[in-house]
Each structure stands twice: as structure tokens, then as C-alpha cells.
């Protein structure tokens, strides 16, 4: 049994300069650990509530003082001296203390900060790496991770991550020929700098980057992003479709209006949107589509899965929101074949683990993802290893909040040289 003696929280800034929350958990034996929580810009309507202050005079209403206060008072007072036999027991107590359907009373950001800080404290108490503790939580690997995830790395950004200069949100690089994390990052470095050189030559602009570190030149349309990605791969000396593939984050909810998809200068019906995505997949080396349709377009997701699901990953992000109820609905309707797992969409580690288990039981792939508003905290890298993620989506290879996770993966790989998972459909 592990007793919490203190919970203290602090408002800090994320990678976009907006507030988020950092919590420190102290156990009865004096073990202490902290965790910082990310925040998303492209958020699904069904995500757990991220509590913000709403004061327009401070951080334009996005302050987190109330969430901090909820940790320092409500959660500290309720949980101190309480002994917990497991992570699930602690997380169930957090959910009960909040008592609202979507964690709006205390805030999912407050609850998750306690959940992860407690996990890190227990791992430290047990003198285990955090990824081993995470592995134990899913009770599949007896503390021993067996592989690394395949990386999907941001190259170009549009949508809400880059001022909406084009409709789709991200074009990501999949170094599918790489046999290690180190080799994946070497390949990506070649491709990133080839893309940067071509961006300067084509647009005469310096390296302006988007929320997750991707390059964001003023492309004429979304397809120009795909063409530029393929050209960068070739310029770096790799063969598209053999050595390197593409993954797309469409984020279609953000350009869905009145039953139509406003894709750049096109106004497409759902069936036309599926045809358009299918055409891209025929002409470009695409292995994954994330949120190819809007989060509430349940009628047409099964048709997208039927059209492309045997060839590529059809990932649900806004559609699923790491929410077990929505995942069950998607499994029953055969709406997709992959879960994009973001822990802060649901609010506690145990609930995220349950979402992962549902997806894996259905035969789905699981991509663990960070958010656009990240911190230098690297726990997401340990989570991707410990939970045997099939893919890890962490943004580009620039900016310290991204590098903290990649560097943590390199550190784990140096200590434990495990194989990297093969891409399932390549």
C-alpha cells in the first residue's frame, strides 16, 4: 500500500506559451515525483474537460489557476494519508472526487497531473524505469517491454497547427526501412533538411515552424504538401514507398460544414471525400490516415474503412477521443482499425489503459500521441515503450518539448536495444 502525504501543483507554460499544470506527488516514505500535462489545439468535442479559468484579463481566459487550486486543496486534502494498493485504485478515487461525466468539476488536466505524478513516484519508489511501471499497468509484459514503436514524424503542417494555410493538418514521415529509433531519427534528419532546403528555394522563406515543429510554407493547396514531402524524401536519397512512407493527419472535423468537406477550394460530399482520399492513397506512399472524416460523421466512417482499411491504417482521433464508449461504437460499426491514444483526452492512466485494451482486443493498431501544446516532460516516451505502442506520434525533430521525448527513446534504446515494430501493412 502506498500513501500520499502531499500533492502540490503549479501553473507553468507549454510549448505555445499557454498555461498548463505541473503536479508533484510525495509518498509517505519521502519519495517525490512530478509530472507536467500537455494541452491540445485540435481537440475533439468528446474529450474530457481541460479546466481553464475563463478570465479574459489573464492569458486570454486560458489560465489554469483553478485547476492548480483543485490539486492543492480538494485533491490534496482528500487523498493525503490515503493508502492506495494500485494505480487503478488511485485513479478511481480521482474520478469519484470529480464526480462529473467529463471531469469538468476538477478538470481533466488536474486529475491527469496527479495520476501521472503518482505513477512516476511509485516507479521511483520501486527503483524501476517509468516504462517498466507503465508496462506493468497493462499486465501484459511483466515489467519487460519487448519492442519500440515505429515513429511517425511531422514534416509539414497546415490546419490549426499552422494558421490554416491549407486544410489538412499534418504530413508525417514514416521511416519504414529503419531498424532502430536512432536510425529513424537519422533518416528523418536527412529528409527534414532536404525539405527545408527546398522550402527556401521554392518560397524564399526561413524555417518558420508550426505548433509541433513541422515546416509550414504557404502551400498552394493540401496536395502540394504531399508532393513536397515525396520530393524531400527523394532529395534525401531515399525511395518513397520502399524506404519511407507518409502518414496524414487530415483533421477533417475542422473543415466540415453542413454535411460537406471544404478541402481547400473544393466542396466535397462525404462520398467524394472518401474518393479523394482513396485517390491520394493510390498516387502517394500513404500508410496511415488520421481523422479522414469528421468526428460526428459516423455514417461514413465504415465506408472509409471498407475502401482503404485493408491497405492502410484508418486512425480515429477526434472520432474516438481515447473514450471507451466511442471506441466500442467504432468497433461495432467497423469504423476504423486504429486508435490514436492521447491520455489527456480521457483524464487518467487507468482509463487510457482500458481504451488501449479495447482497441488491441479488436485487433487494432495503437498509436500513442502527444499534443500540440507540450512541455519538456518526457513521460510520453516511456508510455509508448511501456504500452507497446505500434506507432509513436511526437511532432517534428525540432523544439525542445519534442526532443525531450525522442532523446528519452534514445536513452531507453541505449539501455535496452530492442527491435522496432514493423509497419503492419507495408
Automatic annotation (TrEMBL):
PROSITE patterns the record matches: ENOLASE
EC number of the protein: 4.2.1.11
Active site residues according to the UniProt entry: 212 (proton donor), 342 (proton acceptor)
SMART domains per the UniProt record, alphabetical: Enolase_C, Enolase_N
UniProt keywords, alphabetically: Cytoplasm, Glycolysis, Lyase, Magnesium, Metal-binding, Secreted
Top-level EC class as recorded in UniProt: lyase
Domain Enolase N-terminal positions: 4-134
Protein name: Enolase
Amino acid at each position: 500500500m502506498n500513501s500520499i502525504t502531499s500533492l502540490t501543483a503549479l501553473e507553468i507554460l507549454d510549448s505555445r506559451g499557454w498555461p498548463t499544470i505541473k503536479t508533484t506527488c510525495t509518498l509517505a516514505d519521502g519519495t517525490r515525483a512530478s509530472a507536467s500535462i500537455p494541452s491540445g489545439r485540435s481537440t475533439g468535442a468528446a474529450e474530457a474537460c481541460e479546466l481553464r479559468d475563463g478570465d479574459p484579463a489573464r492569458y486570454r481566459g486560458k489560465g489554469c489557476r483553478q485547476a492548480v487550486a483543485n490539486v492543492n486543496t480538494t485533491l490534496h486534502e482528500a487523498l493525503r494519508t490515503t493508502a492506495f494498493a494500485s494505480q487503478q485504485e488511485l485513479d478511481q478515487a480521482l474520478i469519484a472526487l470529480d464526480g462529473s461525466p467529463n471531469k469538468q468539476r476538477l478538470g481533466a488536466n488536474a486529475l491527469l497531473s496527479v495520476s501521472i505524478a503518482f505513477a512516476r513516484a511509485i516507479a521511483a519508489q520501486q527503483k524501476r524505469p517509468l516504462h517498466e511501471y507503465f508496462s506493468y499497468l497493462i499486465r501484459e509484459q511483466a515489467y519487460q517491454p519487448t519492442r519500440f514503436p515505429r515513429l511517425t514524424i511531422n514534416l509539414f503542417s497546415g490546419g490549426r497547427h499552422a494558421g490554416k494555410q491549407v486544410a489538412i493538418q499534418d504530413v508525417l514521415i514514416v521511416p519504414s526501412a529503419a531498424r532502430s529509433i536512432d536510425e529513424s531519427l537519422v533518416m528523418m534528419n536527412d529528409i527534414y533538411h532536404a525539405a527545408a532546403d527546398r522550402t527556401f528555394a521554392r518560397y524564399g522563406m526561413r524555417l518558420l515552424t508550426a505548433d509541433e515543429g513541422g515546416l509550414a510554407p504557404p502551400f498552394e493547396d493540401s496536395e502540394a504538401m504531399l508532393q513536397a514531402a515525396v520530393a524531400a524524401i527523394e532529395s534525401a536519397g531515399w525511395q518513397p514507398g520502399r524506404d519511407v512512407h507518409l502518414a496524414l493527419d487530415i483533421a477533417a472535423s475542422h473543415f466540415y460544414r453542413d454535411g460537406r468537406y471544404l478541402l481547400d477550394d473544393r466542396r466535397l460530399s462525404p462520398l467524394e471525400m472518401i474518393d479523394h482520399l482513396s485517390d491520394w492513397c493510390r498516387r502517394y506512399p500513404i500508410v496511415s490516415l488520421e481523422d479522414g472524416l469528421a468526428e460526428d460523421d459516423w455514417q461514413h466512417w465504415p465506408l472509409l474503412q471498407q475502401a482503404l482499411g485493408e491497405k492502410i491504417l484508418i486512425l480515429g482521433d477526434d472520432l474516438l477521443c481515447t473514450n471507451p464508449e466511442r471506441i466500442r461504437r467504432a468497433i461495432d460499426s467497423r469504423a476504423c482499425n486504429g486508435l490514436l491514444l492521447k491520455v489527456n483526452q480521457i483524464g487518467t492512466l487507468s482509463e487510457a489503459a482500458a481504451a488501449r485494451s479495447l482497441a488491441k482486443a479488436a485487433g487494432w493498431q495503437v498509436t500513442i500521441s502527444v499534443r500540440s501544446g507540450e512541455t519538456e516532460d518526457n513521460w510520453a516516451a516511456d508510455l509508448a515503450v511501456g504500452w507497446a505502442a505500434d506507432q509513436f506520434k511526437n511532432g517534428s525533430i525540432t523544439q525542445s518539448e519534442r526532443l525531450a521525448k525522442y532523446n528519452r527513446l534514445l536513452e531507453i534504446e541505449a539501455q535496452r536495444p530492442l527491435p522496432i515494430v514493423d509497419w503492419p501493412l507495408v
